[in-house]
């Protein structure tokens, strides 16, 4: 789909326009829109509208906004506040789904030390080295937070009376139940969501973070890994290979914005705009590996982290800057997001990160309380 027909590009532009207006539109829905329009002909604009309604599924309370944007985009009835320009939108890539639009050819970059909001595609190779996280991997399954499962299972000893099975037994045995059956809700591991900043300012930590992500994917029951830079990329499928070097090579080839600019807020907003991705954060331990150095305004980052905090069981930001004893969250962005964080901790080394992740199940004071005392 590298050379889209003008009509297809216009339809995808409408999906981008909806996202910029706050509608949750997944890449699969954009592809479904193209297929729906193809299936219908289309014979009229109403066919396109019906295909858009069926595939993009706007919320009922925003149907009026959807219709207004549709008329403005396809009929030009009104001037658009946002033109749905793909250059301003955070592109999304998922290892399990077809990309909405093929990316530009990446180019290698030796630099990347400077933080910037401009998109700059780049490639990375991660040299083979032995992993030092075997002990962390063994400890991880029993160290992560747990919750009660929504489903119950049969049990012989402890648990609540199983009324349904008891009634069936009463009917079979004419009221004689020597030992009433029981059920209980077992403990299950909470999801662990890792969001890795791969911008140029985090370049020296990227290899360690991918090593950590690979160990987490291999040992946690439910883990999801995304990279955020100028784009949002889901790399969980790439990291499932048992061989570490092969897994990191697959991830390196799949991500396109290594060591580029920083758009933390827009990338997180894109994550939350896709329902399938946003569901990963619900009830999960969300760990954000970033220096928090957002370029430009931080309003989008603040809004995104506030929304993430309402979904997550625990929202943590690990920054390498916190390794400096003089560090204080005094940038405008960190001051704005601090009230939404459960943890703001040192993320400068694998040792610090593994120690923190293994402590996620233990309660701790909120980040704002800790850093207020430190200031």
TrEMBL record:
Which lineage? Bacteria, Pseudomonadati, Pseudomonadota, Alphaproteobacteria, Hyphomicrobiales
Q: Which Pfam families match?
A: VWA_CoxE
Database matches in InterPro entries? UCP010256, Uncharacterised_CoxE, vWFA_dom_sf
- Extract the SUPFAM superfamilies matched here: vWA-like
Disordered as annotated region, ranges: 84-116
State the protein's name: VWA containing CoxE family protein
């Amino acid at each position: 789909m590298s050379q889209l027909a003008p009509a297809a590009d216009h339809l995808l532009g409408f999906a981008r326009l909806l996202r910029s207006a706050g509608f949750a539109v997944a890449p699969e829905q954009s592809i479904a829109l193209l297929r729906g329009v193809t299936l219908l002909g289309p014979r009229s604009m109403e066919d396109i509208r019906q295909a858009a309604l069926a595939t993009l599924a706007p919320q009922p309370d925003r149907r009026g906004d959807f219709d207004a944007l549709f008329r403005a985009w396809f009929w030009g009835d009104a001037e658009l506040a946002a033109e749905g320009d793909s250059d301003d939108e955070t592109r999304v890539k998922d290892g399990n789904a077809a990309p909405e639009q093929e990316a530009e050819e990446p180019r290698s970059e030796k630099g990347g030390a400077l933080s910037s909001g401009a998109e700059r595609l780049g490639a990375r190779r991660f040299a083979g080295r032995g992993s030092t996280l075997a002990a962390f991997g063994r400890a991880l399954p029993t160290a992560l937070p747990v919750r009660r499962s929504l489903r119950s299972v049969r049990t012989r000893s402890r648990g609540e009376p199983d009324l349904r099975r008891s009634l069936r037994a009463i009917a079979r045995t004419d009221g004689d139940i020597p030992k009433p059956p029981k059920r209980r809700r077992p403990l299950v591991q909470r999801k662990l969501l890792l969001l890795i900043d791969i911008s140029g300012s985090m370049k020296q930590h990227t290899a360690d973070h991918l090593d950590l992500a690979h160990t987490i994917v291999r040992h946690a029951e439910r883990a999801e890994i995304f990279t955020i830079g100028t784009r949002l990329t889901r790399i969980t499928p790439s990291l499932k290979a048992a061989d570490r070097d092969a897994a990191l090579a697959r991830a390196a080839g799949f991500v396109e914005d290594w060591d580029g600019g920083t758009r933390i807020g827009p990338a997180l907003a894109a994550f939350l705009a896709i329902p399938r991705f946003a569901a990963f954060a619900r009830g999960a331990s969300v760990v954000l590996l970033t220096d928090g150095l957002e370029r430009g305004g931080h309003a989008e980052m603040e809004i995104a982290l506030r929304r993430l905090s309402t979904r997550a069981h625990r929202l943590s930001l690990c920054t390498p800057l916190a390794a400096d004893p003089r560090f204080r969250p005094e940038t405008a962005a960190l001051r704005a997001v601090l009230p939404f964080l459960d943890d703001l901790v040192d993320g400068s080394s694998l040792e610090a990160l593994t120690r923190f992740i293994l402590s996620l199940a233990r309660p701790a004071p909120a980040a704002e309380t800790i850093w207020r005392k430190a200031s």
